[in-house]
């Protein structure tokens, strides 16, 4: 077993979130939801308030279905209702109840504790596209870890891009 090598890891989340629908079909930019990617070390999972910014008025799914996989309009609409419960949103009264329940998302991308990775350095400074590390997210129904995120994988990218491979840049 190796630390941090979870290529292909695709956990089931408490609320099904389709990157294919949001980033693919609706073309929502990654950094709209993951705004930390351009301004901090962590891209982070967006708060439910970010989701509710749109889903206050989008309470039913009206897009394409994938019947072979069981992704029906009813399935997606039920997931939106889970979001409402988690955020404490009353869709009949169109207001927050003050009783949010939150969501315990399952982390997908995890580096070893002794490794430091700064999203903003790669996104804002280097100008990398999210897909370079995270794969074709706009085509992913279920988010998965695209790359192994090993030291060798990172070093290979640094060498290809002709940037420093000095250890102290990433490891403390």
TrEMBL record:
InterPro entries: Cyt_c7-like, Cyt_c_III, Multihaem_cyt_sf. Signal peptide: none annotated. Heme c 1 binds at residues 119, 122, 130, 134. Binds 4 heme c groups covalently per monomer. The keyword Manganese does not apply. SUPFAM superfamilies: Multiheme cytochromes (SSF48695). Heme c 4 binds at residue 133. It comes from the Bacteria. Its cofactor is heme c. PANTHER family: CYTOCHROME C7-LIKE DOMAIN-CONTAINING PROTEIN, LIPOPROTEIN CYTOCHROME C. This is Cytochrome C.
């Amino acid at each position: 077993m190796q630390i941090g090598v979870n290529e292909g890891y695709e956990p089931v989340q408490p609320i099904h979130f389709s990157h294919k629908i949001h980033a693919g079909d609706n073309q929502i930019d990654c950094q709209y939801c993951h705004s930390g990617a351009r301004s901090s070390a962590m891209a982070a999972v967006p708060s439910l308030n970010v989701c509710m910014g749109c889903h206050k008025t989008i309470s039913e799914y009206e897009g394409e279905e994938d019947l072979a996989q069981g992704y029906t309009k009813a399935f997606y609409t039920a997931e939106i209702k889970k979001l409402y419960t988690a955020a404490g949103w009353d869709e009949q009264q169109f207001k927050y109840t003050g009783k949010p329940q939150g969501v315990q998302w399952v982390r997908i991308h995890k580096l070893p504790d002794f490794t430091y990775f700064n999203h903003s350095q790669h996104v804002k400074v280097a100008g990398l596209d999210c897909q370079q590390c995270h794969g074709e997210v706009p085509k992913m129904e279920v988010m998965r870890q695209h790359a192994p995120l090993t030291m060798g994988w990172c070093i290979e990218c640094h060498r290809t891009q002709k940037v420093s491979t000095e250890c102290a840049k990433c490891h403390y």
